[in-house]
TrEMBL record:
Lineage: Bacteria, Pseudomonadati, Thermodesulfobacteriota, Desulfobacteria, Desulfobacterales
Gene3D superfamilies: Metalloenzyme, LuxS/M16 peptidase-like (3.30.830.10)
GO molecular function: metal ion binding
Protein name: Peptidase M16 domain protein
Protein origin, superkingdom: Bacteria
Family, similarity comment: Belongs to the peptidase M16 family.
Domain Peptidase M16 N-terminal, residue spans: 15-161
C-alpha cells in the first residue's frame, strides 16, 4: 500500500508535506513558520502575533473584505495562530475548492502590504485582545506562571506583547521583521484530506519558490529557570492558582512517559487530582495538570480555581499528590487506563483533517520526517511504571513556581510552597 504521507522540498528549502485521506471530502491546509514569541527580543515582543493579524488585512490584489468574502463564498474557513515557537496560517475547504484556498493563503502570506491605516485599526483590536486576556483570571494566572517559571527568558512573556510595545511598533517594522524571519528553512506547508500530493505541489510550489533565503538567524537559547512566587490581588470570587516545574522538550525520548504521567496526575476525570480535589472534596470545579513542550524544554504544572478559604488546603492536597507520584510506582490499572486514554485520543484524532495537517507539521518541524501513529502507539505501550516514577522524581523534586491570582490576604504565607 502506498504511503499516504508524502514530502517534497522546493529548491529554496521550503518543505511541502501532505497526508492523503481519500475517504473524506475536505482538505485542511496550513502554512507554518517555525518562528514565534520566544524568537523576539524584548523590544519586539508581540511582533509575531501582530504580523499574524496584519497578514489578513490586504494584499496587492485583495483587501481585507475580499479575503473574508472569498473564503465565505466557498464555504470554507481561514484563520491563524501564533505560539511560542510557531506561527500558522490555515484553512479548510471542500476538496473542489482547494485551488482557491491555496491561492488565498499564498497571496496573504507572500503579498500582504501592511497598509498604515489597517495597521492602526488592527493595533486597537490587539490592545482589546490584551485587555480580554487580563480580564480572564485563568488566562492571566497561566501567564503569571510562565513569568514565575521562566523569568526574563522569552518563554516567560505573553505572545500578545505589551501595550507599550504595540504602541511603539510601526507598519514598516512589522514588514521588515516578517521578511527577516519568514525564511524558507523555517517554512513548512502541510495539507491533509482528499488531495493528490503532486497536484498540491503544483498549486503551491510556483508561488512559494519566490521566497528567497536570508541571513542566518539567531539560535534559540534554553532558559535557566529560577522558580519564583507571583501573587496578584484581585477582588474575585475565586483564587486561581498554578504550580509549575521544568518539563521535557518535544523531542525528548521520555516524552511518552511524560504524557502518561500528566494524564495520571490531572489530565482527565479519573486522574488523581480531579478525583481528590473535585470529586472527593468538592473544592474546585476546574482542576487539572498540564505539560506543554517546546523544542528544548517544557513545563509540568497544575491549575485550580478555589474558594479563597480553601487555598491552603488545596495547595496541601496538590503537594500530597505530587509527593505520592514521586514516592510510589503508579498502579498497573492506572497506567493501563492512561495508555488507553492517550491511544484513543491519538487514533480518533487521525479521523480529523485538521489534526492530521497539524500532526504533519509538528513531525516535520520537530523530527524532519513522518512519524506514523503506529510508531507513537508502540512507544506509548512500552512505557513502564518504573519510568514514570523515575521521571516524577527528576521533574517534581526541584523547586516549583507558584502563581496565585485573587483575593489573597497574606501573600507572604505562600512562600512556604515555593
Amino acid at each position: 500500500m502506498e504511503n499516504p504521507v508524502r514530502k517534497t522540498e522546493l529548491h529554496n528549502g521550503i518543505r511541502i508535506v501532505t497526508n492523503s485521506m481519500p475517504h473524506v471530502r475536505s482538505v485542511s491546509m496550513g502554512v507554518w513558520v517555525n518562528v514565534g514569541a520566544r524568537d523576539e527580543p524584548l523590544e519586539n515582543n508581540g511582533m509575531c502575533h501582530f504580523i499574524e493579524h496584519m497578514v489578513f488585512k490586504g494584499t496587492e490584489k485583495r483587501d481585507a473584505f475580499q479575503i473574508a468574502a472569498e473564503m465565505d463564498a466557498i464555504g470554507g474557513n481561514a484563520n491563524a495562530f501564533t505560539g511560542m515557537e510557531d506561527t500558522c496560517y490555515h484553512g479548510k475547504v471542500l476538496d473542489t475548492h482547494l485551488p482557491r484556498l491555496t491561492d488565498i493563503l499564498s497571496d496573504i502570506f507572500l503579498n500582504s502590504v501592511f497598509q498604515p491605516e489597517e495597521f492602526v485599526r488592527e493595533r486597537a483590536v490587539i490592545l482589546q485582545e490584551i485587555g480580554m486576556q487580563d480580564d480572564s483570571p485563568d488566562d492571566r494566572v497561566h501567564l503569571m506562571t510562565s513569568e514565575a517559571l521562566f523569568g526574563e527568558h522569552p518563554l516567560g512573556r505573553s505572545v500578545l506583547g505589551s501595550p507599550d510595545n504595540l504602541l511603539s511598533f510601526e507598519a514598516h517594522s512589522l514588514l521588515d521583521y516578517l521578511k527577516e524571519w519568514y525564511q524558507p528553512s523555517r517554512i513548512v506547508i502541510t495539507a491533509a484530506g482528499h488531495l493528490d500530493h503532486d497536484d498540491f505541489v503544483s498549486l503551491t510550489g510556483p508561488a512559494f519558490e519566490q521566497v528567497s533565503p536570508g541571513p542566518e538567524l539567531p539560535q534559540r537559547v534554553p532558559p535557566k529557570n529560577k522558580p519564583e512566587l507571583r501573587v496578584e490581588h484581585r477582588d474575585l470570587e475565586q483564587v486561581h492558582l498554578c504550580l509549575a516545574a521544568s518539563g521535557l522538550g518535544a523531542v525528548d525520548p521520555r516524552r511518552y512517559a511524560y504524557s502518561l504521567m500528566n494524564i495520571i496526575l490531572g489530565g482527565n476525570m479519573s486522574s488523581r487530582l480531579f478525583q481528590e480535589v473535585r470529586e472527593k472534596r468538592g473544592l474546585a470545579y476546574s482542576v487539572y495538570s498540564f505539560a506543554p513542550s517546546f523544542s528544548d524544554t517544557g513545563a509540568i504544572g497544575v491549575y485550580a480555581g478555589v474558594d479563597p478559604s480553601n487555598l491552603d488546603l488545596t495547595l496541601d492536597l496538590i503537594y500530597k499528590e505530587l509527593s505520592r507520584l514521586k514516592g510510589d510506582k503508579v498502579s498497573e490499572q492506572e497506567l493501563r487506563g492512561a495508555k488507553e486514554y492517550v491511544l484513543g485520543s491519538l487514533i480518533m484524532s487521525a479521523e480529523s483533517t485538521d489534526n492530521q495537517m497539524l500532526r504533519a507539521a509538528q513531525n516535520e518541524i520537530n523530527f524532519g520526517r513522518h512519524k506514523p501513529i503506529s510508531e507513537s502507539a508502540k512507544n506509548i505501550e512500552a512505557v513502564t511504571r518504573e519510568e514514570i516514577l523515575e521521571l516524577a522524581n527528576e521533574l517534581l523534586e526541584a523547586p516549583m513556581a507558584l502563581a496565585v491570582l485573587g483575593p489573597v490576604q497574606d501573600p507572604d504565607s505562600l512562600r512556604r510552597y515555593v
